[in-house]
Specification:
The longest helix has 22 residues. The chain is built from eleven helices and 16 strands. With 408 residues, the protein is of the alpha+beta class. It binds glyoxylic acid and manganese (II) ion (MN) (2 copies).
Length: 408
Amino acid sequence: MLDPARIMERCDALARHSELPGGLTRVFLSPQARAATDTVLGFMREAGMHAKLDAIGNAAGRYEGSRAGLPCLMLGSHLDTVRDAGKYDGMLGVITAIECVHALNASGKRLPFAIEVIGFGDEEGVRFGTTLLGSRAVAGIFDRQALAATDAAGTTMQQALLDFGLDPAAIPRVARKKGEVLAYAELHIEQGPVLEAEGLAVGVVTAINGFSRLRVTLRGAAGHAGTVPMRLRRDALAAAAECVLAVERVAQGQAEVVGTVGRIEAKPGAINVIPGEVAFTVDVRAPQDELRHDAVAAVRSEIDSVCRKRGVDAAVETLQEFGSTVCSPWLMQQMDEAVKRQGLRVRRLPSGAGHDGMALKAITEICMLFVRCKAGISHSPLESITEADAAAGAKVLLDFIEHFRLPA
Ligand code: GLV
Ligand code: MN
Ligand code: MN
């Protein structure tokens, strides 16, 4: 029996592992991530799975099929959060998948395939600026250069893994081979307003928008805020301000393209000093890769012209890019059927947010089920879902699992 109240309680329980007093922030390889991961490993064992922490810090559980060693249907989502996050982005997918296994195990049901549930250690990329670290390791596309990336305190990912008790040299062993994973299915909150507007509890995802993440560093000249005349300044922050507006303008110029500057830092950062150096991030997304590439090219050219005009040097570095990822038609079809069998209307919709399936696509076919969230709010402590919608999502996911089959 599925227990939706337990799903809600477990999301609440995980939200208590946070570095932010009174809120939720849990980044990759932090002590709070360790506590949440250990909690999830406990939930997995209670559901009848073999569960272990893997070498990249994912919680990985396996429920054998009708005989040991069969290829698996992989389910999951992520356990890391953005800063001041909601408690469902990522966690709902992991907890619901475990709940489905719990229900199968409680009724002694074994399927003609194994089920693996993974709580990915990093999807958001908050700590090291590069995303999908857990799922990329599982998909065998983890870039070892990422080990040299540093967090805000200057700690390398390599060191953070060691501090977490993990062996970075073992990361390649996390990779799964094609054929071991029959498909990947992820339940996730919608993070947008469409399902709520249409009065629907769940939706079937068609594709995940691609993204480009850039880091821009502008170098002007620091100076005395009282003595340097305005016409002689090379103010890196004033230049950055124009660049931020240029990102917004470029994105506004193309329906379906979105562009965000989410982080900016000015140095030296004093009230009476002209900022000499500014670093900011740019996140550009679109459903079609060509649209996104054009938008990124336009952003780069706007930054160049702002900086030329202001005598400021600009360095633009691509941190990460992921192409848009299409969900497999046969899996969407099977998810549609599960939605219908549960007496719900099928609604297909694309995802503007990134998800672990983008990485998993390198080794297997993927699909996703969205669950309605209140007012479409996510990446915010106001993120909220109802227990009834959690129940609807869990029922559809369990139905999908029980009827899952490879295409003829
Ligand atoms: C992850 O939530 C992302 O889309 O950035
Ligand atoms: Mn997120
Ligand atoms: Mn997410």
